[in-house]
Amino acid sequence: MLRQYELVERVREYDPEADEDLINRAYVYSVKMHGSQKRASGDPYFSHPIEVAGLMTDLRLDQETIVTALLHDTVEDTLTTVDEIKKLFGENIARLVDGVTKLSKIEAQTEDERAAENLRKFLLALSDDIRVLLVKLADRLHNMRTLHFIKSEEKRQRIARETMDIYAPLAERIGMYEYMREMQLLAFRHLEPEAYETITGRLKQIKEGDEGQVEKIAGSIQKALANAGLAAEVSGREKHPYSIWRKMQERHVSFEQLTDIMAFRVITDNSAECYRALGILHEKWKMVPGRFKDYISTPKRNGYRSIHTTIMHRNNMRVEIQIRSNRMHEDNEFGLAAHWAYKQGKQPDGQAGWIRDLIEILDHAEDAEELLEHTKLAMYQDRIFAFTPKGTLLQLPKGATTVDFAYAVHTDLGNQAVGAKVNGRHVPLRTQLLNGDVVEVLKSDGQEPQPGWLSFVITGKARAAIRRFVRFKERDEIIEIGTKLYDEIVERLPGKIGRKAEKLALKRLELEEMDDLMMAIGTHHISNRDVMEALMPGSVNDNDADRKWPEQDRAISIEGLTPGVAFDLAECCHPVPGDRIVGLRRSGQNVEVHAIDCLQLADGVDADWVDLSWGADSDGAAARLAVVLHDKPGTLAEMAGIFGFHNANILRLRMTNRDAPFHTFEVDLEVHNVHHLMRILSALRSSEAIAQAERL
């Protein structure tokens, strides 16, 4: 553990103007407040914040960050308050300490909810000052170094999983690879102990039996560069055990099948010499196609810069090489912390974008599970590079689609996307992007996010925005259905009611406002009888059993509502506008719309029945047909021609039976209404190519 004078000396080595008195007071205050508290290792608790402060000095951080590290656990684990910190050490330090402090004393919440609340507060704090993140990462790193002292295996596993899912990716996103690698290694040791022991054991065997092979390869690389007149520092190492395990999992190969478990690093004086070194190495040895990446010309989103290549060394051995300058190496290992940008009160270049994305996800997430899912998606995926038509470079996860790209540009563009061009060609919105694609998103003011987009978007920002829109739309449409049902219920009462009766009804039903009542009616969380009794006590005859068929004076119109949001069109009968329809309403589910002659309605005895209508201007739905064609060339084309002639779009076509001389097809067809469908069926039945056509 660092002594008081040692910590001050460390800070003054790189910052002679540091306030020695401030650091001393924070050191003494931390020791005093933590007092006799002990860690799981048996060490005094105050040793932890002091070690975290020591890690901050390794990064050469300013005095406010050092003091924050010393005090970061006082609010959470002692009687200290944020106001007291503010009084003793100033507003800035109090704000930083509050940002790092976890909300660990929230009652009656699940583990996911606690983790989400901690993450929510933490992300909001780091958006205000990135130093919060630096202290938090150092805090987590030191806790991981002592994790083995915790007796509870379940707790060790939980902390290790949280580190792997949240904190290591956060370190990677700000370019602190040294922290990321150590946290991954320590977490891997607890999450996969057998795999950890196996891989580290194999690496040890290789190191003992390679007869200095790493040094020999490094020497040959250095010699090749020196012979060409380039002085560079060359080093070699076995790859990170967790990185090896991930490759084994992704490629489904054994340890023996991995050919690139060694990596070498070439460090030059400047970027020009990096490219010169690359040319020398590629001229000396053959490169492996597909294994070259230039992160100097196109840096990663976290600012990482380096050239990656793989060459075939002696005996066809694959050797992975990273080439970078001294400045790049320092930035790559310690990332954002190496920039000192916050000293001038600025956010570091290249960092604000992904932080803004995370804050937007906070605003859109509905619950803990969704927040954690979207945040992990935003932080922890391999990247590709794509360009806007004006040449702006965007980084996205592998597998991202044009919709993900649209949301990465701006949420409004994503919401209004109707199509896309990739490299000048029109493509479907679900098209996955490749490195170097130029993407133009086509938009329309009348477009809205579609629930179906959730089946193919992969970025946390896109998923959060779409889910948020769908939630609001679903609420609005359920309230609309509930309002129509409410109006019909009110008409069945034996007398008129006013606002006073409605307020009393809300009180009896323990609801806050009328929209809550409409939601409860629309989702059938409350029965019609209960609503009537709440509005007008004594209006319901208890001896009159509920009937499933509604006592409605008029049908409830579903015009203007969106299929799949407030109601679902039943798959068993595929109703279209013009069909007589009825709705089945079950608690907590969308209204399920059936044609009145659907055979599946017999299964709806447990549901509340609602008489529905399409509305005068309802247009468009999917009908399902069974069409039997003669087994002759051109019959399928003739069927498609009939659909085209009648302006009907084929949504799905599937052969269900092949029984010479006939083929049976099941067709999902987009039609305007039942009259449109009848005309199409009549045309099909009149064709010589078609033996039979029926609606399913």
Task: Count helical runs.
Answer: 26
Trace the largest sheet across and list its strands.
Answer: 1-2-5-4-3
Instruction: Tell me the total number of β-strands.
Output: 19
**What's the end-to-end separation, in Å?**
77 Å
Return the CATH architecture of the largest domain: Orthogonal Bundle
| Spans of at least 5 consecutive residues with low confidence | 103-110, 338-352, 545-550
Q: What is CATH's topology name of the largest domain?
A: Hypothetical protein af1432
Number of domains: 6
What is the CATH top level name of the largest domain? Mainly Alpha
Shape: extended
Please write out the topology.
Layout: H1 4-14, H2 20-34, H3 47-58, H4 63-71, H5 74-77, H6 82-89, H7 91-100, H8 111-128, H9 131-145, H10 153-173, H11 177-191, H12 193-209, H13 213-227, E1 233-238, H14 241-251, E2 262-268, H15 271-284, E3 293-294, E4 307-312, E5 318-325, H16 326-334, H17 352-364, H18 368-379, E6 383-387, E7 393-397, H19 402-409, H20 411-415, E8 417-422, E9 425-427, E10 437-443, H21 460-491, H22 499-509, H23 514-522, H24 528-535, E11 556-557, E12 567-569, E13 581-585, E14 591-595, E15 608-613, E16 621-630, H25 635-645, E17 649-659, E18 662-671, H26 674-686, E19 690-695
Parallel strand pairs: 2-5, 6-10, 11-15, 12-14
Antiparallel strand pairs: 1-2, 3-4, 4-5, 6-7, 8-9, 8-10, 13-14, 13-15, 16-18, 16-19, 17-18
Helix pairs in contact: 1-2, 2-4, 3-4, 3-9, 4-7, 6-7, 7-8, 7-9, 8-17, 8-18, 9-10, 9-11, 10-11, 11-12, 12-14, 17-18, 17-21, 18-21, 21-23, 22-24
